[in-house]
């Protein structure tokens, strides 16, 4: 191997890599060192040229690798899918309790599954029933008998216990008393505005349209009487219209 052959190989493109080229150059100088004794000028020149080649080849190889790196496209950023942030726990609004008793909403007439009446609401219903005029007792009987097929409800004297009534009957009686009181207050305001001294209770009875209507018959005859059980008193309402108080 000699440098002329190496030059021809470079021109012809026979070297597949720079390592193959460097191997032939080294072979040329190592042959000169092997076949010429130490001290011979060929041996001396071959050693110096081999050292020079190694230094130049190292620098050229470093420059070549740097140029190759500069020509490479920059690496694409890798999309990293981050996990979604943890869902924030709902913060329950702290409702400051109001002072005193909280009044619950009364169920509407067509509302299904009505709630039970509280003890206070039952007491208010008892007071409201006791304050009704005699003319309205037949409406109370109609409401109670509408959902009660007990034969005792058809007797000469009927005992009404609010605690034993079903929820629907309790709330219907409550609506009846409430509507009557509204009509009574309306009549009172009208009487005050007119400056008259009319019987506002009679006017409220005439104006109140909350009595059961339709196919519900009037179930009160001259022998019917109603006893309403209260917390401390009961009262007996007869068909004659009188009210007799009876201690419990």
TrEMBL record:
Answer yes or no on keyword Transcription.
Answer: yes
Superkingdom per UniProt = Eukaryota
Domain annotation Bromo: ranges: 1-43
Q: Which key words tag this protein in UniProt?
A: Bromodomain, Transcription, Transcription regulation
What InterPro entries does the entry give? Bromodomain, Bromodomain-like_sf, NET_dom, NET_sf
Under Gene3D superfamilies, the record lists:
1.20.1270.220, Bromodomain-like
Q: Which residues form the NET domain?
A: 107-188
Respond yes or no to whether keyword Transcription is given for this record.
yes
Q: What name does the UniProt record give this protein?
A: NET domain-containing protein
Species of origin reads: Sorghum bicolor
């Amino acid at each position: 191997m000699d440098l002329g052959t190496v030059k021809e190989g470079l021109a012809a493109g026979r070297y597949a890599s720079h390592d193959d080229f460097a191997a032939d150059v080294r072979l040329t100088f190592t042959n000169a060192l092997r076949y010429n004794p130490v001290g011979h000028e060929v041996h001396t020149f071959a050693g110096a040229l081999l050292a020079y080649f190694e230094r130049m080849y190292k620098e050229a190889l470093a420059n070549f690798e740097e140029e190759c790196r500069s020509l490479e496209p920059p690496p694409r950023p890798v999309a990293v899918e981050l996990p979604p942030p943890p869902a924030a726990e709902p913060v329950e609004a702290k409702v400051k309790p109001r002072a005193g008793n909280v009044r619950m909403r009364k169920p509407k007439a067509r509302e299904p599954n009505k709630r039970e009446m509280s003890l206070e609401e039952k007491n208010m219903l008892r007071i409201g029933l006791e304050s009704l005029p005699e003319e309205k007792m037949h409406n109370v009987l109609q409401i109670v008998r509408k959902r009660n097929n007990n034969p005792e409800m058809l007797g000469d004297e009927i005992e009404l216990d609010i605690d034993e009534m079903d929820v629907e009957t309790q709330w219907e009686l409550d609506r009846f008393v409430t509507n009557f009181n509204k009509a009574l207050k309306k009549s009172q305001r009208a009487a005050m505005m007119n400056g008259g001294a009319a019987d506002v209770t009679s006017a409220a009875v005439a104006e109140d349209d909350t009595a059961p209507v339709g196919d519900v018959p009037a179930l009160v005859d001259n022998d019917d009487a109603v006893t309403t059980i209260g917390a401390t008193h009961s009262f007996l309402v007869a068909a004659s219209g009188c009210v007799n108080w009876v201690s419990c």
